[in-house]
Amino acid sequence: MKDIKETLLERTSVRRYEREPIPAETLEFIYDAVRNTPTSYNGQQFSVIDIDDQELKEKLYALTNQKQIKTCNHFMVFCSDYNKITRLAEKKGFDVPPFTDTMDGVTIGIIDASLAMMSAVVAAQACGLGSNCIGYLRTVDPAAVAELLKLPKGVFVVCGLALGVPREHPDLKPKQPKDLVFFKNEYRQDAEEMVNELEAYDNVVKEYNHTRSGGTTDNDWCDHILDYYRHAMSYRILEYLKNQGYDIKH
């Protein structure tokens, strides 16, 4: 097993996998790491659908056009989940407050599911597996994904995670320098200097994309990310959340 420094600092997104299966003991270790994730109130407002059925993976691939979904060994779908506690509360005769109708309720479920996914990423990386987080599963066609996965009210997809034995070892992507990530005691006030540093980082990313192995592009960081935002303006997530029982009012 890799040490913690190598696990965290050499992680890359892997999209090509070998055909060999994930060992059962490795999968159990990932499960245990996910189960031990810190969550709000210890409410564990998440669940994971672990998909190894090839036909189902193919259907999700057809929706997303993300090839790694059908070629990975296991595809895990991390969900915000208030269904479990609601079912138990109903059996015990407890009133269930409409927490899912609040932004805090939605946020907590997303945070719990995201932390759980990161636990899986770290555990998989430590065991020498490759992984790739696929947020597009959440937005491509939420209703169709919910139907395929038979999600009940109170549950919605936060993110997917492809796992498998890596067939590639991508170059490590450049991240923002520490001064653009960590601020002391308050948000940075030197806006002009910060923008200059961001511009320098933008150029670093452009150079990386122009020279990286496995296919090059002319993408910078800023406009490339804004393209994702532009595309996301067409999503109708609020409507989908209402269909899943999250009628956000405040």
Strand-residue fraction?
A: 5-15%
Helix content: 40-55%
Widest β-sheet, arrangement of strands: 1-2-4-3
Enumerate how many helices there are, as a single number.
11
User: In one word, what is the shape?
Assistant: globular
Which residues sit in consecutive blocks of at least 5 with pLDDT less than 50? none
Q: Please give the radius of gyration in angstroms.
A: 20 Å
Amino-to-carboxy terminus distance: 45 Å
How many strands in all? Answer: 4
Mean pLDDT over the residues: 97
Order of helices and strands: HHEHHEHHEHHEHHH
Give the structural class.
Answer: alpha+beta
The major sheet is characterized as:
4 strands, antiparallel
Structural key phrases:
250 residues, alpha+beta, four-stranded antiparallel sheet, 48% helix, globular
